[in-house]
């Protein structure tokens, strides 16, 4: 099972990561560590989520874009410094899950505050399925498999949500954001089903050989 960037073209995703390399090398030379950037990205993500809950989309999207850049930069920094460590990988994965929880929790709170049942339930579904997508990947890797297939790995979900926030900020209506959350909930569910199916087939084939 090969890696996948989902609906984002592989060349575009790799190009974006490659563009971070010069910045990462400069920061590494200055003594900035990947773990520091990971923690900074998490703090920005939580702050951005708070502004989502407060219905301030413009501030939220600016902060969350900065947090997403940190999330991309920490991996580039790890590669530029020493190739990464198990501690760094653990922190990155843990803070990613916490960031997702903060964001979708904020969306659930916003749905409740604005009496928007679609946003409330879509955000709750996106929260559950997004966590399960990552969980299935982790369990697959524990079994010696790679489960990175599917339409919506985390980077795709983040891009869609940021576009939805941007649309909310421009239009002055939550409709683009609600649509983005609904799309993420659907794509995350499809990704979860795809990963479970692929892992089950791989494990079944292994056990019958």
What does this structure look like?
This protein has one domain: CDP-alcohol phosphotransferase transmembrane (TM) domain (Four Helix Bundle (Hemerythrin (Met), subunit A), Up-down Bundle). It has helices at 10-29, 34-53, 57-81, 86-113, 117-142, 154-171, 175-207. The chain has 7 helices and no strands. It has 209 residues and is mainly alpha-helical. The longest helix is centred in the last third of the chain and has 33 residues, at 175-207.
- Strand % is under 5%
Shape: flat
* CATH level-4 homologous superfamily: CDP-alcohol phosphotransferase transmembrane (TM) domain
Global structural class: mainly alpha
What order do the helices and strands come in, and which of them pair?
Elements: H1 10-29, H2 34-53, H3 57-81, H4 86-113, H5 117-142, H6 154-171, H7 175-207
Helix pairs in contact: 1-3, 2-3, 2-4, 3-6, 4-5, 5-7, 6-7
Overview features:
single chain; Four Helix Bundle (Hemerythrin (Met), subunit A); flat; disordered N terminus
Summarize this, please?
The chain is mostly helical and 209 residues long. It is 81% helix and 0% strand.
């Amino acid at each position: 099972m090969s890696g996948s960037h989902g609906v984002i073209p592989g060349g575009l995703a790799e190009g974006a990561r490659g563009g971070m390399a010069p910045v990462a090398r400069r920061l590494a030379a200055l003594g900035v560590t990947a773990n520091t950037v990971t923690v900074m990205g998490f703090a920005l993500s939580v702050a951005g989520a708070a502004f989502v809950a407060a219905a301030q989309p413009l501030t939220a999207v600016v902060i969350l874009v900065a947090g997403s850049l940190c999330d991309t930069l920490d991996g580039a920094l790890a590669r530029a410094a020493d190739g990464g460590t198990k501690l760094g990988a653990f922190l990155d994965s843990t803070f990613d899950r916490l960031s997702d929880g903060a964001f979708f929790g904020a969306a659930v709170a916003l749905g409740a505050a604005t009496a928007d049942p679609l946003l409330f339930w879509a955000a709750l579904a996106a929260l559950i399925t997004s966590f399960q997508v990552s969980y299935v990947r982790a369990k697959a890797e524990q079994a010696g498999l790679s489960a990175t297939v599917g339409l919506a790995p985390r980077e795709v979900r983040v891009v869609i949500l940021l576009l939805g926030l941007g649309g909310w900020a421009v239009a002055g209506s939550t409709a683009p954001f609600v649509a983005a959350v609904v799309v993420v909930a659907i794509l995350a569910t499809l990704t979860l089903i795809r990963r479970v199916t692929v892992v089950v087939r791989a494990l079944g084939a292994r056990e019958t050989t």
